[in-house]
Amino acid sequence: MLRPNLQEESKMYNFDKGIERRGTSCVKWDESFVRQDVLPMWVADMDFEIAPAITKRLVEAAGKGVFGYQFLSDAYYDTVIRFMKERHDYEVKREWISYLPDVVAGLHLAVCTFSEPGDEIILMPPVYGPFFRVVKENDRVIKECWLKNDNGCFTMDYECTKKNITNKTKAVMLCNPHNPAGRVWTENELEKLIEICAEYKLSIISDDIHCDIVSKKHKHTMVANICRKKGVKCIILTSPSKPYNLASIHVANAIIEDEKVHAKFEEMRVHNHISGPNAFAEAALIGAYDESREWLDEMNAYVEANHEYFAAYVKENIPTLKTFKPEGTYLIWVDFTGIEKVNGKPKEFLDEYCKILVNDGEFFGEAGKGFVRFNLACPRSYVEKALAILKEWFG
Ligand SMILES: Cc1ncc(COP(=O)(O)O)c(C=O)c1O
């Protein structure tokens, strides 16, 4: 199979090079259960060096030599506003933005903002595991409306959503783009969902952490633009952490247009002792959103080529496995349900025999049983190695 021409895709940055991560106390490579002989393709972070402009900003911030309590300057908010407008066609006002250390903290606060204990929240599994925990740990009730699987392409089940709504249902928790199914929900799909929310007076919690990792032919839709038109309240959660690989910097934002909802969210934030930023948050966000857009475009092209390669290779050489070229995220969802030899436990089989570490489909709920998720934010050579092994075992 032909290797896509990376020279053309990657003009300034060499994503083929990767970066040595073992021995850096990183979760992906160094956790105690990650054996030396496995190829880690699990947790959602990248095996690429970050954009140089971010490193430069961080080094400058470190050079200040004082790390007392901080707040975020106007430059931080201006950067978020500019980025949302220019990349996502979303006009954000300063007073709508709340800093958060991470997106999952924002999910907790959003659930508590929109509901009371005993209320119901709709999830669309298979979906990012902490969605379940966030609902349960706050004593709310999960209503599952599984996505429909049409030959690997997952779509929302509007009928199921409607049927599940009771007078206790308060919100839908959306993942856009969707982890793990790789869908970038279209405007039309989102509109249909928001119409249901408007009809039944449900709010939207939209986790948009992957919104900057989208393939060329797709466009991320900010659901807030639809919610506003239909009178649906929503909380959007974004972060430069996924697209720029900054998870340990702890910088994310909630964007909330409705004044009362925002006030309640802030009340929850204070109540949960989620305080101000660390000294590197602002530097990293500005270095990313303002100064590393070219890096982001090249990273997207590289990851898309990895996706293309993986999906085409599987189709041609390992037809027993089923997959779908993701529209967004750097994650690919692979269906092992037809493979007897894995005995219903593909993640364990891949770890033990293939020496590839992936995320177990059941991390994404019961709907993920028999699936696994690979992370393709890595040099092409890792993808080639993994595919050669998969071909050996399942081809
Ligand atoms: C959909 C989604 N939300 C949230 C997170 C985690 O975000 P954070 O580390 O900012 O809590 C991830 C990480 O993979 C994710 O995929």
What do these coordinates show?
The protein has helices at 6-9, 27-30, 52-62, 74-88, 103-114, 130-137, 158-164, 187-200, 223-230, 241-244, 259-271, 281-289, 293-317, 346-354, 380-394; strands at residues 39-40, 97-100, 120-123, 141-144, 148-150, 153-155, 169-175, 203-207, 234-238, 252-255, 322-323, 331-335, 356-357, 359-360, 371-375. By secondary structure, the chain is of the alpha/beta class. The protein folds into two domains: 6-52 and 293-394, Aspartate Aminotransferase, domain 1 (Alpha-Beta Complex), CATH 3.90.1150.10; 65-289, 3-Layer(aba) Sandwich (Aspartate Aminotransferase, domain 2). The strands form four sheets. A seven-stranded mixed beta sheet has the order 2-10-9-8-7-3-4, sandwiched between helices. Strands 11-12-15-14 form a four-stranded antiparallel beta sheet, covered by helices on one side. The protein is globular and about 55 Å long. It starts with 5 loop residues before the first helix and ends with a helix. The mean pLDDT is 96. The site of pyridoxal-5'-phosphate (PLP) has 13 residues, from helix 5.
